[in-house]
Structure formats: structure tokens, C-alpha cells
Specification:
Blueprint: H1 3-24, E1 29-33, E2 40-44, E3 47-57, H2 60-70, H3 87-104, H4 106-115, E4 118-125, H5 131-146, E5 153-162, E6 165-170
Parallel strand pairs: 3-4, 4-5
Antiparallel strand pairs: 1-2, 2-3, 5-6
Helix pairs in contact: 3-5
């Protein structure tokens, strides 16, 4: 798969897994459009909404290693192993910064103004700590940062890869 095709395929995979996750709890999700932004216009149950998919990585070099490995038209740049001080804290900060970046983004504010609050799905590509642990350790810190901001997202889920798709954990 070419590098430019990876992101749309990844987003579609995450949306399909999120649909299954919601259906398992008795709620339907129908993708109506993929305008970018947002990544999807959807109906959740009987409500129209929108979904934004993003990813947080332990570090920029970890992100580059993972994404270059997935592309046929890029040379894989292996992760350079090194000592990581406070890996849990680093991962929690990466998740928090990705979420805050979405809250500050002009296009997200525009979507909120036009369609109301949406759903944010954040991939936790943090090999030393799980999304559950990130939520346990950082939920209150993240929520205290966004409480004074416009409520751009009604729901925020962290997700991780699994053997058959993705597993989701509710943050907000």
C-alpha cells in the first residue's frame, strides 16, 4: 500500500471497528459521508454526528517507524532503541497533547459550530502503557484542561489495535 493510501484505509478500519463496538452495546452507526474534515459524517442511533480519527504515538520516531513500515513506497526507518525516562508519563502527555490539539484546531471549532459536538477517536500507539492505564492516570488532568474549552467533542474514546480490529475505551 502506498503511503498516501494508508491514512484513509486506517481511518476506515477504525470506523468499522467503532461501528462494531457500538453495535455490541446496542447502538447503530451509519457512515453517511467521508468529507475530511471530519473523517466521517455519521448517524449514531437516531442522531446525526461526526467523527474525527487521530493517533498519538509514544514518540515521533516511534510514529515514523510504524508508518514507514506499513508503506510499500517508503524505506522503513527502524525505531532506534534508547532509554525512555518515565514512559507512562510520556505516553499520557502524548495523548493529552493530541486531544488538546484537536480542541484548538480551527476546523474542529468550525465543525462544532455547524454540526454540534462530535466524537474523537484517539489511537494510543504507546507500547509501554495501555489505553486503560492512560485513562486511569490522566483522565482528570485531560478533563481539567478541556473543561474551559468549547465542548467540541461529546465523546472521546482511546483505542488500541487488537487481533480483530480495535478495542475502544471511553475517556469522555
Amino acid at each position: 500500500m502506498k503511503h498516501r493510501d494508508i491514512q484513509p484505509a486506517h481511518e476506515e478500519s477504525v470506523l468499522n471497528s467503532f461501528k462494531s463496538f457500538l453495535e455490541d452495546s446496542g447502538t447503530s452507526l451509519t457512515v453517511l459521508d467521508r468529507p475530511d474534515p471530519p473523517d466521517a459524517m455519521v448517524t449514531i442511533g437516531d442522531e446525526n454526528s461526526w467523527v474525527e480519527v487521530t493517533d498519538a504515538f509514544q514518540s515521533p520516531d516511534w510514529a515514523e517507524s510504524l508508518t514507514s513500515n506499513a508503506a510499500d513506497d517508503k524505506i522503513h526507518k527502524p525505531y532506534q532503541r534508547r532509554v525512555i525516562c518515565e514512559p507512562d508519563r510520556q505516553a499520557c502527555e502524548a495523548i493529552k497533547e493530541v486531544i488538546l490539539k484537536k480542541y484548538r484546531k480551527k476546523s474542529m471549532k468550525g465543525l462544532h459550530s455547524k454540526y454540534g459536538p462530535g466524537v474523537l477517536l484517539v489511537g494510543a500507539y504507546t507500547p509501554m502503557i495501555s489505553p486503560e492505564e492512560i485513562i486511569e492516570q490522566s483522565r482528570s488532568e485531560i478533563l481539567s484542561e478541556i473543561v474551559s474549552m468549547s465542548p467540541i467533542f461529546e465523546f472521546i474514546y482511546l483505542y488500541r489495535n487488537s487481533h480483530d480490529g480495535h478495542v475502544f475505551y471511553k475517556l469522555l
